[in-house]
Write a structure and sequence with these properties.
Length: 422
């Protein structure tokens, strides 16, 4: 069987690596991929522009691709899955309409209210003046969110009215996020502990994946700017059995049913970003994809076949699919380029040691191959991921692996996993 994975990050390296382990899979193509996917056994990169849906389809036909897995949100929101499915290519991921859960904050907040899903109180605005007036009526801190996709940068936590005014100015007047900032959501600031709940969903059927938690802030102790995630671990102790059920009952089921009622049933990875406070639960956001870096530790723990799981979802057979997890814990530490999540340099030469040891994997993210050398090409460059009998052991092995990597300007958080050990 031939598989195509769309994307180029650490998540896609993990999806491709895991797919390649399936005995029925002879080749995995990644479009556009990174140096990690280029070097992986049974995996190769394809340089097609993923905005060119027809070119992606032609490649699928030519290579007899039997499953496409779409990693990132942009092609999902843009309708790549709809296009490939219309052309009879088996594709795992939500339709553009269902991906609006991530593609538009206004859509998702209105959806939460309509279907009784717990979330922060909010108001939405499509112009500066009415948003500014609203600031007079609320308490601080507050959270200003650009409506559309903004590569994880569109959420601004504002401690004072002045900060909120600056955020609105940058969104509406300076158009910092372009069309993604055509409207905003302003919502109550929530306190508590964040957790990621990720599941494979097909219409009204769900297989929750192993629980996980990521570390969003750039600095140790959760200080500094928010990033896409500086590391993650699985399982997450904050999601105990009772909380797990509560999330399914109060968040996932009403979301799946709501999407069916709206005429856009969900297929794909569905990721709820949650705030948990004293056993109470609120949804911060939905992502219409697997998390990055959550994918890396979660897939290291997955014993079953990812390919068969995706196919079962597409064929509406999730009911009969038995998913199996390693009892071990996993920890993934992101190694990033100095300056990330703001400006950083690229094309720095990387050195790292390859290892084939079980339960240890250096996933590439922002890397590329140039004249057979690995160079940095993004803000998050690697995710050093390891299994251990407990989180401490997984953490210690992941940090040993981090030590084997070097490039100019490399930095990483020193406390990934501590939240879970505490
Ligand atoms: P989002 O993309 O909406 O998940 O926001 C990104 C990050 O901003 C979240 O992971 C939280 O750390 C933070 N955040 C978003 N909304 C809120 C909120 N209402 N209260 C507190 N923090 C928030
Ligand atoms: N790690 C957070 C995300 O994937 O959005």
């Amino acid at each position: 069987m031939h598989i195509l994975v769309i994307g180029s990050g650490g998540r896609e390296h993990a999806l491709a690596w895991k797919s390649a382990q399936d005995e029925s899979v002879s080749e995995v193509f990644v479009c556009p991929g990174n140096a990690g996917t280029a070097l992986e056994n049974k995996v190769s990169n394809v340089s097609i522009n993923i905005d060119d849906f027809a070119a992606v389809k032609d490649f699928c036909v030519k290579k007899n691709i039997e499953l496409v897995i779409v990693g990132p949100e942009q092609p999902l929101v843009d309708g790549l899955v709809d296009y490939l499915q219309r052309n009879d290519i088996k594709t795992f991921g939500p339709s553009s309409a269902a991906a609006q859960l991530e593609g538009s904050k206004t859509f998702s907040k209105d959806f939460f209210v309509k279907y009784g899903i717990p979330t922060a109180t909010y108001a939405a605005f499509d112009n500066f003046d009415s948003a500014k007036d609203h600031l007079k009526k609320i308490q601080f801190p507050t959270v200003v969110k650009a409506d559309g996709l903004a590569a994880g940068k569109g959420v601004i936590i504002c401690h004072t009215e002045n900060e909120a005014l600056a955020a609105l100015t940058s969104i509406f007047k300076d158009q910092a996020f372009g069309v993604a900032g055509a409207s905003v959501v302003i919502e109550d600031f929530l306190i508590g502990e964040e957790a990621s709940f990720i599941a494979v969903v097909s219409k009204d059927k769900i297989i929750p994946l192993a629980t996980s938690q990521d570390h969003k802030a750039v600095g140790d102790g959760d200080v500094g700017l928010n990033t896409g995630g500086m590391g993650a671990y699985s399982p997450a102790p904050i999601v105990d059995e009772k909380m797990h059920q509560k999330i399914i009952d109060e968040v996932m089921q009403p979301t799946m049913q709501g999407l069916i009622a709206e005429g856009s049933p969900y297929l794909g990875f569905l990721y709820a970003g949650l705030m948990i406070n004293n056993g109470e639960l609120k949804v911060l956001e939905f992502n219409c994809r697997f998390g990055d870096p959550e994918t890396q530790p979660i897939l290291l723990r997955l014993k079953s076949s990812l390919v068969q799981l995706c196919l079962a979802a597409i064929e509406d057979k999730l009911d009969s699919y038995q998913i199996e997890w390693s009892k071990q814990h996993a920890c993934g530490v992101v190694i990033a380029s100095q300056g990330y999540p703001e400006d950083y340099s690229k094309n720095n030469k990387v050195s790292f040691q390859s290892t084939n040891a079980d339960g240890i994997k250096l996933f590439h993210a922002g890397t590329k191959l140039h004249n057979e050398k690995v160079l940095t090409s993004g803000g998050r460059v690697f995710c050093a991921t390891a299994l251990g009998k407990d989180l401490q052991e997984a953490q210690s092995k992941a940090y040993d692996l981090v030590e084997s990597v070097s490039f100019d300007g490399a930095f990483y958080r020193k406390d990934i996993g501590n939240k879970g050990i505490r």
